[in-house]
Structure formats: structure tokens, C-alpha cells
């Protein structure tokens, strides 16, 4: 299996979404994230993800910043570990 066979088409940021890495679990469905645009944000885990997708520290996620409060946002997507490794290899995240 060559490297090109193992490459998946991953969900990429749409609109104003940015890649982020979870740095801290705050409780009450909130996490601290370090976004790739240089911002530290408090991100909310939306209800549709709360019981289905477990988010842990060091997970790579997509965050959609709020229009009215730039330092906060919603988590739109969580990448699996192998998908996050692929994003790092391709240079999308550090």
C-alpha cells in the first residue's frame, strides 16, 4: 500500500472555520483551544456532539469563531488521530 493509497480526503475548514488543538478541558461542555490563526479561544462542544464524540486534550478540531465574540467559538468537527497525523504531514497544522 503506497502513501497515496492511505491518503484520505479530509474535511477542510469552510467559511471562517480554523484548525485548533485542544489544550485544556474546562468542564460544562467547554474546552480551551489553540487555533492556527494564533488565537486562544474557549470553544463550546455543541449538543449534537456531546454524547456521540468524545473530545480530549491534544485532539485536533475545527473551530468556528463566533461573530460577536472573537475569543469564543463552537467546535464543528473532531479529527481522528490518523487524520490529524495526515494534516500535520501535509503542513496544515503544527
Automatic annotation (TrEMBL):
Protein biosynthesis is among the record's keywords: yes
GO MF terms held by the record: RNA binding; translation initiation factor activity
Q: Does the keyword Aminoacyl-tRNA synthetase apply?
A: no
Keywords assigned: Initiation factor, Protein biosynthesis
Give residue ranges for domain S1-like: 6-80
In terms of Pfam families, this protein maps to:
eIF-1a
Q: Please name the InterPro entries in this protein's record.
A: NA-bd_OB-fold (IPR012340), RNA-binding_domain_S1_IF1 (IPR006196), TIF_eIF-1A (IPR001253), TIF_eIF-1A_CS (IPR018104)
Superkingdom of source:
Archaea
PROSITE patterns to which the protein is assigned, alphabetical: IF1A (PS01262), S1_IF1_TYPE (PS50832)
Function (record text):
Seems to be required for maximal rate of protein biosynthesis. Enhances ribosome dissociation into subunits and stabilizes the binding of the initiator Met-tRNA(I) to 40 S ribosomal subunits.
| Family statement drawn from the similarity comment of this UniProt entry | Belongs to the eIF-1A family.
The name this protein goes by in its record: Translation initiation factor 1A
Which organism does this sequence originate in? Halomarina oriensis
Amino acid at each position: 500500500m503506497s502513501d497515496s493509497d492511505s491518503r484520505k480526503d479530509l474535511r477542510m475548514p469552510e467559511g471562517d472555520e480554523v484548525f485548533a488543538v485542544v489544550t485544556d478541558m474546562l468542564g460544562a461542555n467547554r474546552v480551551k483551544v489553540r487555533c492556527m490563526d494564533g488565537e486562544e479561544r474557549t470553544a463550546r462542544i455543541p449538543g449534537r456532539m456531546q454524547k456521540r464524540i468524545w473530545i480530549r486534550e491534544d485532539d485536533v478540531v475545527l473551530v468556528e469563531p463566533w461573530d460577536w465574540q472573537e475569543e469564543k467559538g463552537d467546535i464543528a468537527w473532531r479529527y481522528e488521530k490518523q487524520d490529524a497525523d495526515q494534516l500535520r504531514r501535509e503542513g496544515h497544522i503544527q
